[in-house]
Amino acid sequence: MSDLICVGAISGAFGVQGEVRLKSFTSDPRAIASYAPLFTEDGTRSFDVTITRPVANGLAAHLSGIATKEEADAMKGTRLYAERARMPDLPDDEFYHADLIGLLVLDTGGVELGRVHAVHDHGAGDILEVTGPKGETLIPFTRHAVPTVDLTAGRVIVDLSEEPE
Predict the structure, then answer these.
(1) Does 1 score more than 50 pLDDT?
(2) Cα-flanking dihedrals φ and ψ of residue 108, to 5°?
């Protein structure tokens, strides 16, 4: 999985001609098609993608190998992944979620809090889910709360003091 980046998900069928409703996780939603072929999480299926039009909450798209509404419905909830090599390089202050998973998390005093278990995005900004000896901790992924991300060293430093208003 480290060579794959989650770029979208199928949220169901669109129409009766085998189109899917595609939710893109890319900064430019239509760019998802340029990262094809896209793979299922287990890597057993791959798809070429043709965006047909924008629709409410996503894009309508044809995925190769999906020809009917029933096949499209069966794919609902499937996350789609692109090969890392096909993805653009990011600026120094941006990260793919996949790169953060598993990083060691330390507070500003050097105390180990655990490891990044997941990165959640509920619309108001990313949140790091950290699992450690004291259980689960949710940390907003902001410059104040996470001043240092060092991918080379495999760690993040978090500042759990109150954010300035």
Answers:
(1) no
(2) -65, -15
